[in-house]
Amino acid sequence: MAGILFRNYPRYSLRMSDLELLARSVRTLAWLGDAEFEREVRLRVARRGDWPVKRLDRIRAQVVRAEGQANLLASIEASLSDDEANTVRRARNSSLRGSARGMRNIRAYRAATALEALVALWHCTGSKGQARFRDLLGPPLEAAIDFAVAQSASLPEPQR
């Protein structure tokens, strides 16, 4: 069933499993988007250099933390389509459960959840969604990684 195309779906050519994923709760989309976003950040960081794993993890953590994701969402929000903005709104307004570590910044956590749901939407919409990711989120994501790389170079290595 995963390889069957949905021919009557007007917006995208999706495999049935992708369409089913888009019908899941916004929390499920955010969960999926979290994994896709982290994978993309890891790939982009690894392409920058062959550094010790501790430095790679520091760079990754700075980009994927809630505050970093909130900044990325803010930088692209004005360029979102109506469908994308609706997904962001639904995810941002979803109820919070005790899953956020420490809940230091609820506003940033909600924005990060919204970005993750948006990333899942793009992932599930095939090449069109991947192009949206690349065009909208690519440049600010690269800038965030540049900043994290520069900051990690100025930090001392942790003591062992």
Please describe what this structure looks like.
The N and C termini lie far apart (50 Å). This protein is mostly helical. Residues 1-6 have low confidence and may be disordered. The protein has helices at residues 16-22, 26-48, 53-64, 66-76, 82-92, 106-124, 126-154. It has seven helices and no strands. It has one domain (26-154): Ribonuclease iii, N-terminal Endonuclease Domain, Chain A, CATH 1.10.1520. The chain is globular and about 45 Å long.
What labels describe this entry?
disordered N terminus, 0% strand, globular, Ribonuclease iii, N-terminal Endonuclease Domain, Chain A, mainly alpha, 160 residues
CATH class equals Mainly Alpha
According to CATH, the fold-level topology is: Ribonuclease iii, N-terminal Endonuclease Domain, Chain A
Main sheet characteristics: none
CATH superfamily: Ribonuclease III domain
Element pattern in H and E: HHHHHHH
Provide the residue-averaged pLDDT: 86
Q: What is the end-to-end distance?
A: 50 Å
Q: Percent range for helical residues? A: over 70%
Q: Strand-residue fraction?
A: under 5%
Structural class based on helices, strands and sheet pairing = mainly alpha
Radius of gyration: 17 Å
Structure summary, number of beta strands: 0
Number of domains: 1
Unreliable spans are: 1-6
Please count the helical segments: 7
Gross morphology:
globular
Could you say what the CATH architecture is?
Orthogonal Bundle
Write the layout of secondary structure elements.
Blueprint (H helix, E strand, L loop, with lengths): L15 H7 L3 H23 L4 H12 L1 H11 L5 H11 L13 H19 L1 H29 L6
